[in-house]
Write a structure and sequence with these properties.
Helix content is 46%, strand content 16%. A 6-stranded mixed β-sheet has the order 1-2-3-4-5-6, sandwiched between helices. Helix 6 links the parallel strand 3 and strand 4. It is globular and about 40 Å long.
């Protein structure tokens, strides 16, 4: 749990309430905070392998979903398939998969992540609603890939995006699908 302790130590230094207040009033600030917290964590932990970066991105994403008050189900199972994050919830995924996102986080098992879309399409038939977080850009058969380590030229298509933009994209998706569980506190 060293990664989680490191993340929360950095968050405490910045101020959890400050982060929450700023992101609640302007979700675009989530990119800034994700980038800043990731950079500090990577410097402190010298995180370089896929497993460590996966754990780091998962913990940070859980925190950001909480402070941004975006609806989600975390670490759930559906049809014997483990799902890291479901936006907005399992009920929506079951009844209206076009209005739900599955986010899977790679932790050193890129081959499993790359093979998984076939299994995940049994639950989520829309590849554009399958998002994969990885340390580096990967080829993802139509899925959206959020890479932690990426340069502009590494991200040539709309299917490849930067991890620090994920909260903004989740909010945009929820607005576009008309999700009524999207909460605003101001």
């Amino acid at each position: 749990m060293e990664i989680v302790d490191t993340i929360y130590s950095i968050i405490d230094t910045i101020g959890k309430e400050k982060i929450q207040s700023e992101i609640t009033s302007d979700r675009s600030l989530s990119s800034h905070y994700i980038e800043m917290i990731m950079a500090q964590c990577m410097k402190i932990t010298e995180a370089s392998n896929e497993e460590t970066l996966g754990s780091l991105s998962e913990a940070l994403l859980h925190f950001m979903l909480t402070v941004s008050t975006l609806p989600s189900a975390r670490r759930v199972q559906l049809n014997n398939i483990d799902l890291d994050i479901v936006i907005p919830n399992l009920h929506t995924l079951r009844t209206s998969p076009d209005k739900a996102i599955i986010i899977q986080i790679s932790k050193g098992n890129n081959h499993l992540i790359l093979e998984q879309p076939g299994n995940l399409t049994l639950i989520q038939p829309n590849y554009r609603n399958l998002w994969i977080v990885s340390s580096n850009p990967i080829t993802t058969i139509g899925c959206i890939n959020y890479a932690i380590n990426s340069e502009e030229n590494d991200m040539p298509s709309t299917e490849k995006r930067k991890f620090h933009d994920i909260i903004i994209d989740i909010e945009k998706f929820l607005k576009e699908t008309g999700d009524r569980s999207l909460r605003f506190f101001q």
